[in-house]
Amino acid sequence: MSKVQLERNQQMCNDNKPKISDLTQRENSISGKESDLFNRYNWLICLTLLSAFIILGFSLDTPGNLWKGIIKIVLSSSVLTTDYFAVGGVGAALIHNACFILLLLAIVLISKTKLTGNIMVHIFMPVGFAFFGMNILNILPFVLGVYLYAARQKEPFGKYITNAFNFGSLGPIMSFLALHSGLQLYLSIPLAIVCGTIIGFFGVPFAASCFKLHQGYTLYNTGFTGGFIGILAIALMGVFKIEVIRPNILLGQTSLPFAVFLIVYSVYIFLLGIFLSIKSGSHGSKKSGSYLKLLKCTGYGEVIYDSYGAEITYINMGIMGLLSIGYVLLMGATLTGPVIAGIFSVIGYGVLGKQPFNTIPIILGVTLSGLVSGADLSSTDFVMTGLFGTALAPVTGKFGFIPGFVAGFIHCAIARMTSDFHGGFVLYNNGFASGIVAILLINFLSNLPQNIFRRNNTNY
Question: Is residue 11 part of a domain?
Answer without folding.
Answer: no
